[in-house]
Amino acid sequence: MAPRQIAVGALTILIVIAGFFYWNSRNSDTLPDGIAAGNGRIEAAQVDIATKFAGRVHRVPVREGDLVDPGQVVAEIEISQLRAQLHRAEAEVASAQSRVAAAKAQVTMSKAQLSLAEQELNRTASLLDRGHATQESYDIRLTERTVAMSNVASATANLTAAERGVDAAQAAVEEIETQIQDSVLTSPVLGRVLYRLAEPGEVLPAGGKVMTVVDHGDIFMEVFLPSSQAHLVTVGSEARVKLDISEFGIPATVSFVSPDSQFTPKQVETRTERDKLMFRVKVRIVPGLVRHNIERVKTGLRGVAYVPLDGWPEPDWSTLLPPLPPEALPDEALSDGT
C-alpha cells in the first residue's frame, strides 16, 4: 500500500474518532452538578361534567375538540317537568300566604275577645266588692278570660305554623329554581372537550356524565426523583421542560413534591441503576404561557423536566436549553404563574 493511501486512511480514522467523541459529548446524559432530571409526559386534570338530577338531554352545543371557557354553556337538560313543578310550588306559596292572613285575623279576633273578657271580669270584681254581684258571676267571668287567653295563645301558634308553611313552600320554589339553573351545564375550567358522552334526546340518571373536559388551567409533568435529589427540591423553584418533539426549554415551576416515597413506576427510566424508592415531583407549566399557546397545547407528549436542586448552577445552566421563539411568548410578563 502506498504511503499516500496509508496517510489518507489514518486521517479518515482520526476524523471518525473525533466525530464520535464530539457526538458523544453533545448527546451525553451527564448533567451538571445541582441539576435533577426525570422523564414524564405532559398531563392535565380531566373534569367530568355531569347532571345533578335525572333528565333528558335537550342540547349539547359543543363538540369533541372544542375549546371551552369557564362558565360557557356545554349542555342543557330538558326542564318542562320542572317548570310544571315550579308553577305548583308557587301556587303552594300563595296558598300558604292566604293561611297566614287568616291566622293573623284569628289572632286579632282572639285578642279582642280577651280584652272584652278582662273588662267584664274587672267590672264583675268591682260589683262583687260592693255586693252587687254574686261569686258565681265572678267565677264565670274569670273562666271566660282564661278561655280567651288560651284562644290567643292558640291563634298565635297557628299564625307561627302558617308562617313556617310559607317558608317551607318558598324553600320548595327555590329548590326547583336551583334545579332549573342546574339544568344548564357549564364548564368550570378553561379546557378542551375530550369526550362527548351524551347526545340530545338521551335520558341520563342523576350524576350521568355528559362530557369530559381536559383542564388547560393546570398543565404539568410528573417526574420521579431519588431521595438524594428529591429532598433538595423546593416548591416554587424554577424548572424547565423539554419535549421530545422540540428542542426548546419551556418555563415551569415546581408545584408539588411528594412527602412520601413510593416504588418506582415501570415507565420511569433513570440514568443510573434504578432506585427502589422514588419521590413524585410535579412541574407546572407557567399558566400565562399555556394561555398564550392554548391552541398548541397537547397532553400526552413525552419529554424531560429539569429541576435545579439549589438554584441554577453558574453559568445559568437553563440557558443551555434554547429559549422559546418570540411568537410563543405572551405579551404580558410570565410572572403571574410562578
TrEMBL record:
Give the UniProt keywords, A-Z.
Coiled coil, Membrane, Transmembrane, Transmembrane helix
Q: Which residues cross the membrane?
A: 6-23
**GO cellular component terms, semicolon-separated:** plasma membrane
Q: Coiled-coil ranges per the record?
A: 72-106
From the Swiss-Prot or TrEMBL record, give the protein name: HlyD family efflux transporter periplasmic adaptor subunit
What is the protein's species of origin?
A: Sulfitobacter sabulilitoris
